[in-house]
Amino acid sequence: MELLQDLRLGLERHYLWVYMGWRDIYRRYLRSFLGPFWLLINSLILVAVMGPLYSFLFKIPMANYLIYMITGMLTWQFISQTFTEMPNVYITNAGYITDVNLPFSVYHFQMLWRNLIIYGNSLIIIIPAVAILGHYKLHAIVLFPIGLLLVLVNAFFISFLIAAFGTRFRDITPITASVLQITFFVTPIFWKKDMVGKYMDLINLNPFYHMLEVIRAPFLGYVPEPISYVYLTIMALVGFLMNVWSYHYLKHRVAYWL
Amino acid sequence: MSGPIITSNTGWPTGFKMTEVTLENVTVEFPVYDARRKMLMTSLIKRYVVGGIIKRDQEHKTPSVTALDDISFSLHEGDKLAITGHNGAGKTTLLRTILGSYKPTCGRLVTRGSIISMVGISLGFDPDASGYENIFIRGAIMGFDRKRLRPFLDEICDFSELGSYIHLPVRTYSSGMSMRLAFSIATTVPADIVLLDEWLSVGDASFSKKAHERLEHFIAKAKILVLATHNKELADKVCNHFIEMKAGKIISRS
Question: Residue B233: CB partners within 8 Å, gap ≥ 6?
Answer without folding.
Answer: none
